[in-house]
Amino acid sequence: MKVLLMGHPNVGKSVLFNRLTGTNVTVSNYPGTTVDYTKGYMRLENKEVEVIDVPGTFSLEPKDKAEEVAVKMLKENRDAVVVCIIDSTKVERGLYLTLQIIEEGYPVVISSNMWDVAKDKNIQIDVEKLEQILGVPVVPTIAISGEGIKELVSKIKKAKSVEIETIVKKVGGET
Q: Fewest CB atoms less than 10 Å from the CB: which of 55, 85, 92, 156?
Protein backbone atom coordinates (compact mmCIF):
# COMPACT_ATOMS: atom_id res chain seq x y z
CA MET A 1 0.00 0.00 0.00
CA LYS A 2 1.08 3.55 -0.72
CA VAL A 3 -0.34 6.76 0.76
CA LEU A 4 -0.22 10.08 -1.10
CA LEU A 5 -0.68 13.29 0.89
CA MET A 6 -2.30 15.84 -1.42
CA GLY A 7 -3.70 19.32 -1.00
CA HIS A 8 -3.12 22.97 -1.62
CA PRO A 9 0.18 24.56 -0.66
CA ASN A 10 0.35 25.63 3.01
CA VAL A 11 -2.36 23.36 4.41
CA GLY A 12 0.01 21.42 6.66
CA LYS A 13 0.89 18.49 4.38
CA SER A 14 4.53 18.43 5.43
CA VAL A 15 3.74 18.68 9.15
CA LEU A 16 1.22 15.86 8.77
CA PHE A 17 3.80 13.88 6.80
CA ASN A 18 6.30 14.28 9.64
CA ARG A 19 3.67 13.12 12.17
CA LEU A 20 2.95 10.01 10.12
CA THR A 21 6.52 9.06 9.24
CA GLY A 22 8.75 10.44 11.97
CA THR A 23 12.27 11.22 10.85
CA ASN A 24 12.86 8.38 8.38
CA VAL A 25 12.39 10.53 5.24
CA THR A 26 13.99 11.12 1.87
CA VAL A 27 13.73 14.37 -0.07
CA SER A 28 14.09 13.89 -3.82
CA ASN A 29 13.62 15.76 -7.04
CA TYR A 30 10.99 14.36 -9.34
CA PRO A 31 12.85 12.97 -12.39
CA GLY A 32 13.58 15.66 -14.98
CA THR A 33 12.54 18.56 -12.72
CA THR A 34 13.73 20.66 -9.81
CA VAL A 35 10.46 20.00 -7.97
CA ASP A 36 11.00 18.33 -4.58
CA TYR A 37 8.83 15.72 -2.95
CA THR A 38 9.34 13.84 0.29
CA LYS A 39 8.99 10.12 0.85
CA GLY A 40 8.95 8.18 4.08
CA TYR A 41 7.40 5.18 5.79
CA MET A 42 4.87 4.51 8.51
CA ARG A 43 3.65 1.33 10.21
CA LEU A 44 0.11 0.24 9.41
CA GLU A 45 -1.16 -3.11 10.68
CA ASN A 46 2.43 -4.30 11.19
CA LYS A 47 3.38 -3.44 7.62
CA GLU A 48 5.64 -0.71 6.35
CA VAL A 49 3.66 1.68 4.16
CA GLU A 50 5.24 4.24 1.85
CA VAL A 51 3.98 7.80 2.40
CA ILE A 52 4.62 10.53 -0.18
CA ASP A 53 4.24 14.25 0.50
CA VAL A 54 3.13 15.33 -2.98
CA PRO A 55 3.87 18.92 -4.08
CA GLY A 56 0.94 21.26 -3.41
CA THR A 57 -1.68 21.66 -6.11
CA PHE A 58 -4.98 23.49 -6.40
CA SER A 59 -6.48 21.15 -9.00
CA LEU A 60 -5.75 18.31 -11.38
CA GLU A 61 -5.42 20.86 -14.19
CA PRO A 62 -1.82 21.95 -13.56
CA LYS A 63 -0.82 25.60 -13.88
CA ASP A 64 2.89 25.26 -13.00
CA LYS A 65 5.68 22.67 -12.74
CA ALA A 66 4.90 21.69 -9.13
CA GLU A 67 1.26 21.05 -10.02
CA GLU A 68 2.33 19.04 -13.09
CA VAL A 69 4.47 16.84 -10.85
CA ALA A 70 1.60 16.43 -8.35
CA VAL A 71 -0.77 15.28 -11.11
CA LYS A 72 1.86 12.92 -12.58
CA MET A 73 2.54 11.41 -9.16
CA LEU A 74 -1.17 10.81 -8.66
CA LYS A 75 -1.53 9.15 -12.07
CA GLU A 76 1.57 6.99 -11.50
CA ASN A 77 0.17 5.65 -8.24
CA ARG A 78 -3.26 4.30 -9.22
CA ASP A 79 -3.22 1.86 -6.29
CA ALA A 80 -2.56 4.53 -3.64
CA VAL A 81 -4.82 5.78 -0.90
CA VAL A 82 -5.00 9.57 -1.11
CA VAL A 83 -5.19 11.65 2.05
CA CYS A 84 -6.61 15.00 0.95
CA ILE A 85 -5.51 17.63 3.42
CA ILE A 86 -7.77 20.65 3.47
CA ASP A 87 -7.60 23.86 5.49
CA SER A 88 -10.52 23.77 7.93
CA THR A 89 -10.96 27.53 7.53
CA LYS A 90 -11.41 27.15 3.75
CA VAL A 91 -13.20 23.82 3.34
CA GLU A 92 -14.95 24.70 0.09
CA ARG A 93 -11.60 25.48 -1.59
CA GLY A 94 -10.09 22.17 -0.58
CA LEU A 95 -13.13 20.20 -1.66
CA TYR A 96 -12.62 21.16 -5.31
CA LEU A 97 -9.36 19.17 -5.50
CA THR A 98 -10.79 16.43 -3.29
CA LEU A 99 -13.79 15.92 -5.56
CA GLN A 100 -11.51 15.75 -8.59
CA ILE A 101 -9.48 13.00 -6.91
CA ILE A 102 -12.65 11.13 -5.89
CA GLU A 103 -13.88 11.43 -9.47
CA GLU A 104 -10.66 9.76 -10.67
CA GLY A 105 -11.59 6.72 -8.57
CA TYR A 106 -9.00 6.90 -5.78
CA PRO A 107 -9.78 5.79 -2.25
CA VAL A 108 -9.79 9.04 -0.26
CA VAL A 109 -9.60 10.11 3.36
CA ILE A 110 -9.96 13.81 4.19
CA SER A 111 -7.83 15.44 6.86
CA SER A 112 -9.62 18.64 7.85
CA ASN A 113 -6.45 20.24 9.17
CA MET A 114 -5.98 23.41 11.21
CA TRP A 115 -9.11 22.45 13.13
CA ASP A 116 -8.00 24.65 16.02
CA VAL A 117 -7.79 27.73 13.79
CA ALA A 118 -11.31 27.06 12.47
CA LYS A 119 -12.61 26.78 16.05
CA ASP A 120 -10.87 30.04 16.99
CA LYS A 121 -12.61 31.72 14.03
CA ASN A 122 -15.99 30.24 15.05
CA ILE A 123 -16.12 28.12 11.90
CA GLN A 124 -18.23 25.04 12.51
CA ILE A 125 -17.90 21.99 10.29
CA ASP A 126 -20.37 19.13 10.51
CA VAL A 127 -17.90 16.29 9.96
CA GLU A 128 -20.56 13.59 10.05
CA LYS A 129 -22.68 15.39 7.42
CA LEU A 130 -19.63 15.92 5.21
CA GLU A 131 -18.77 12.21 5.50
CA GLN A 132 -22.37 11.29 4.70
CA ILE A 133 -22.45 13.47 1.57
CA LEU A 134 -19.00 12.54 0.26
CA GLY A 135 -19.00 8.90 1.32
CA VAL A 136 -15.40 9.14 2.54
CA PRO A 137 -13.94 9.51 6.04
CA VAL A 138 -13.30 13.06 7.29
CA VAL A 139 -10.95 13.49 10.24
CA PRO A 140 -10.44 16.78 12.08
CA THR A 141 -6.68 17.21 12.61
CA ILE A 142 -4.24 19.63 14.13
CA ALA A 143 -1.02 18.41 12.55
CA ILE A 144 1.16 20.77 14.56
CA SER A 145 0.03 19.21 17.89
CA GLY A 146 -0.69 15.71 16.58
CA GLU A 147 -4.40 15.85 17.40
CA GLY A 148 -6.45 13.49 15.22
CA ILE A 149 -3.44 11.64 13.76
CA LYS A 150 -4.29 8.25 15.32
CA GLU A 151 -7.85 8.48 14.01
CA LEU A 152 -6.55 9.50 10.57
CA VAL A 153 -4.28 6.44 10.47
CA SER A 154 -7.18 4.16 11.42
CA LYS A 155 -9.32 5.68 8.63
CA ILE A 156 -6.54 5.17 6.05
CA LYS A 157 -6.94 1.43 6.64
CA LYS A 158 -10.65 1.68 5.73
CA ALA A 159 -10.37 3.99 2.71
CA LYS A 160 -12.42 3.06 -0.33
CA SER A 161 -13.27 4.71 -3.61
CA VAL A 162 -16.66 6.33 -4.19
CA GLU A 163 -18.56 6.95 -7.40
CA ILE A 164 -18.90 10.70 -8.01
CA GLU A 165 -22.48 10.09 -9.21
CA THR A 166 -23.33 8.93 -5.68
CA ILE A 167 -22.20 12.29 -4.29
CA VAL A 168 -24.10 14.24 -6.95
CA LYS A 169 -27.31 12.35 -6.11
CA LYS A 170 -26.87 13.07 -2.41
CA VAL A 171 -26.71 16.81 -3.03
CA GLY A 172 -29.70 16.67 -5.38
CA GLY A 173 -27.92 17.19 -8.69
CA GLU A 174 -28.21 15.44 -12.00
CA THR A 175 -25.56 13.14 -13.49
A: 92
